[in-house]
Structures are given as C-alpha cells and as structure tokens.
Amino acid sequence: MHRILLIDDDTRLATLLSEYFTQFGFELESTTLPGQGIALLDNNNYELVILDIMLPEMDGFEVCKTIRKNSDIPIIMLTARGEVMDRIVGLELGADDYMPKPFEPRELVARIQGILKRAQVKYAAEIKQGAVLSFDALRIDTGKRQVMLNDDELPLSAMEYQLLLLFASSPDKTFTRDELLNQLKGIDADVYTRSIDILVSRLRQKLKPLNPIRTVRGQGYVFVGQAS
C-alpha cells in the first residue's frame, strides 16, 4: 500500500478520506498539528503529503517550507478559499499540486495516482539509464538523483530536479511553457504560465552563479550549459 500523510485540522475529512482511500490501495495517516506532522515525516516512510493551508500553530505555507528543507516528498496543498494567490504561493514554496476545498475525493485520488505514477516512471527510467550529465561545474547523477554544483550538493525539490533533468537531457532545445507543463504536471489554465515561471526562477536561484537556463522571448526557455 502507498502510505500518505494528511496534515489537516478537519478530523471529519481525515476519517472520510481514510475510509475512501483504502479501496485505491492508499493507507492514510493523519494529524491535526503541524509540528506532529513534521515529526511523523522524519520518522516514517510516506510517499506523499496532503497539507491544508489553514492550520493551528503555523500555516500550511510554513509547514511546506519546513518540509522542503529536508525532503522532496510530493506535496498536495488544500485551500478552502481557492484563491489563485494561495496556489501560486504554494507552488513557489515547492508544492507539487493543490486542491481547492470543497473537492471530490475521487479527483484527489486521481491527482495522487498521477503524481505517484509520474514519480515511479521517471525514477525507474533514471535508474535504468544511470547517466551522469555534466555541464561546466554542474553534475547530474541520474542514478543517485543527485545534483552537484562544484563540490556542493544542491537541495532541489522533486519538481526542480525533474525540470533540470528535462532541460539537461535536451540542451539547446527551446521548450515552450506548455511543453514544460505537459512534461511535469497538470495545473489549472488560470495559473499555469505563472507557476512554470516561478519554478524556473526558483531553479535559477539555486544554480547560481551558473546561468544555464535562458529565456527565449515569446517562446519559452532553453538550456545552454556547456557539456563537459
């Protein structure tokens, strides 16, 4: 079974999802307290986190930031208000997807299945390939899923790593935002352009002082790192 952690102070939702998830092969554990949720992540083997924004102690944005310091586990954020800005902030902080409340449990299951399937397929392909890609001072070990800049390992989220691997696998190819979106995940049309730009910007910051990702005006982005 796939183990999933829910951090949400709505105990009724936790009960509903726990019962519903079992028919899809998901085992759900839940907590209403952010601190306890972070502790559970440190001591258990979960495959995905469902994280509410409105929480006691600290909000979901702070929890997401804390998780991303040590883990690239997929995160789906829940927002009761369903505001575009909430979704953008969540993506900026490293969330992989979001669901506005209220939502249909079956849609949430579909999104979880999609995220887990993409992660499994891409990871299996990378392990099978086992290639090491080198560009200037940048080294991408696809077997270890490790990115090194000079002698320092870069702390990339799962989405940042997949984006970098996509670029590095096709240097000098210009990717449109639609192509990047289709390769990485599905996002509602009203925020998809902004979310891809945020993801690219976040990756660029982590790659400094290198600048291998260039903007192609009116088209998208291209990776121009020199193979070494």
Write the layout of secondary structure elements.
Blueprint: E1 2-7, H1 11-21, E2 26-31, H2 34-43, E3 48-52, H3 60-70, E4 75-79, H4 84-92, E5 97-100, H5 105-129, E6 132-135, E7 138-141, E8 146-149, E9 152-153, H6 158-169, E10 174-176, H7 177-184, H8 192-207, E11 213-216, E12 220-223
Parallel strand pairs: 1-2, 1-3, 3-4, 4-5
Antiparallel strand pairs: 6-7, 7-8, 8-9, 10-12, 11-12
In brief, what are we looking at here?
The protein is α/β, with parallel strands linked by helices. It has eight helices and twelve strands.
Provide an overview of this structure.
The structure is a single chain. α7 (177-184) packs across α8 (192-207). Helix content is 45%, strand content 22%. The radius of gyration is 18 Å and the shape is elongated. It folds into two domains: 2-119, Rossmann fold; 131-223, Winged helix-like DNA-binding domain superfamily/Winged helix DNA-binding domain (Arc Repressor Mutant, subunit A, Orthogonal Bundle), CATH 1.10.10.10. It starts with a strand and ends in a 5-residue tail after the last strand. By secondary structure, it is α/β, with parallel strands linked by helices. It has helices at residues 11-21, 34-43, 60-70, 84-92, 105-129, 158-169, 177-184, 192-207; strands at 2-7, 26-31, 48-52, 75-79, 97-100, 132-135, 138-141, 146-149, 152-153, 174-176, 213-216, 220-223. The model is unreliable at 186-191 (pLDDT under 50). It has a five-stranded parallel beta sheet, sandwiched between helices.
